[in-house]
Amino acid sequence: MSDLQAPNPLTRYDAARRALAEVHRFDELKNLRDKAVAMQAYAKQAKDTALITHATEIRMRAERRAGELLREMAERKERDTGKGNRNPALKSQAATPKLADLGVSKSQSSRWQQLAALDQDRFEAKVGTASKHAYDRMTQKVLRESKIERAKALSNEQPLDKNNLITLVTHTGRQVEYPLPKGKATFNRTNQQVDWAAHTWNPVTGCLHGCRYCYAREMAEMRETYRAAYPVGFTPLFHHERLDAPANTEVPKEARCDPRLKRVFVCSMADLYGKWVPTEWIEKVHASCIANPQWDYLFLTKFPKRYTELQLPSTAWIGTSIDQQSRVKYAEEAFRNTKGVRVKWLSLEPLLAPLQFSDLSMFDWIVIGSQSATVQPDGPVKEFAPPFEWVARIVAQARDGGCKVYLKPNLLGGNPNPQSPGMQLPQEDPEEEIADAAARARREGRAS
């Protein structure tokens, strides 16, 4: 199967860009343009805002090149323009093809040659404008459909069964009725957005940071399929019924060979250590972790100072998320003063600025990634990939500080395979050093 026939539309997009630079025959170019049109149709059906902009760009570049070839063919009299300009040298050959023979209408030919006549700067501006319009139309459609689906769901909503309800509490003390789970609480498996852990666990949901790029808020407030699970949207809510999940979920046997399988991202849909979160909630989550040390618990917060005020599980991977320079100082101070955990890590996803750190040696692990496109309640947010120099500088400083580095595949755009041609992505793991440190401790204990 060729790349242009691949089922993954982003793979087809990458292949189309490569093919566009190499094609010289009109029939091949026309075929490539038609594939871009099909890619646009797929993107509309899938509501893929990133792909619609890519497909629009490919289509316009293919049409511009087609316009150039049509003009060149007419000048060489290799196609019939209807003006009696057939090349005498071709009299003994088959009839000179007309536009219809090439599968092109007169309006298409005119429009494509107009694109070809533009200078490069004006054409690039036109591509940017067309891509933006396609993106805006798509996101507005998603927003409209989301509002319609939510209105339909509200009108069709069935009353809750009062005999099968539990009462949850928000951070302000508001009581919320919630369906009683049918079975024991267990972990959920992660998706490709969280590729450094195998499970998620959300005893607390919701957040008040208001980050414009938040994927969790999009899920809780914009996706109808998640509405029942988030009855108060993204308002912080404590799920006491989920506290037994670590005890109820069995560590996979394969975790012996793949340590990722025993890692749990705790509160992937919240900031457990946000200023608004009651300490009682945090202590109950920690107590469940401490009682079940068979798991590695990955935490992430924008308020790392709270780590220094609490008893932390010994198998915790405490992390902080930094998206602006003002957070760096507080993160460095908190992590210098935090002890007794398994891993201290830093999340720079998304990396939105050329961050400067005085030192990275207080971290064991650094994860760097791009910003994904989302549709938020107040409108769409476009994807953003940091410049290579921002990433390279942090990676170099991490090397100097002895930190392991994990670069997310989305840094390359389109979430390709990590081994795709382009920048090689370090995807290291602190697990080996942890094992080595434990072995050294055992040897030193025997020696003494």
Q: What would the average pLDDT be, to the nearest integer?
A: 83
How do the SSEs run, as a string of H and E? HHHHHEEEEEHEHEHEEHEEEEHEH
Tally of helical runs: 11
Estimate nothing, just give the exact number of structural domains.
2
CATH architectural type of the largest domain: Alpha-Beta Barrel
Q: What is the end-to-end distance?
A: 62 Å
How do the strands line up in the largest sheet? 3-4-7-8-9-10-11-14
Say how many strands there are. Answer: 14
Describe what you observe in this structure.
The chain is α/β, with parallel strands linked by helices. It has two domains: 3-147; 162-447, TIM Barrel, CATH 3.20.20. The protein is built from eleven helices and 14 strands. The protein has helices spanning 9-22, 26-46, 49-75, 106-117, 120-156, 215-222, 245-248, 279-291, 328-336, 388-401, 431-447; strands spanning 165-170, 175-179, 188-189, 199-201, 204-205, 237-238, 263-266, 296-301, 316-321, 343-348, 365-368, 374-376, 379-381, 404-407. The strands form three sheets. Strands 3-4-7-8-9-10-11-14 form an eight-stranded mixed sheet, covered by helices on one side. A hairpin with a 2-residue loop joins strand 12 (374-376) and strand 13. The radius of gyration is 28 Å and the shape is elongated.
Topology, please?
Elements: H1 9-22, H2 26-46, H3 49-75, H4 106-117, H5 120-156, E1 165-170, E2 175-179, E3 188-189, E4 199-201, E5 204-205, H6 215-222, E6 237-238, H7 245-248, E7 263-266, H8 279-291, E8 296-301, E9 316-321, H9 328-336, E10 343-348, E11 365-368, E12 374-376, E13 379-381, H10 388-401, E14 404-407, H11 431-447
Parallel strand pairs: 4-7, 7-8, 8-9, 9-10, 10-11, 11-14
Antiparallel strand pairs: 1-2, 1-6, 3-4, 5-6, 12-13
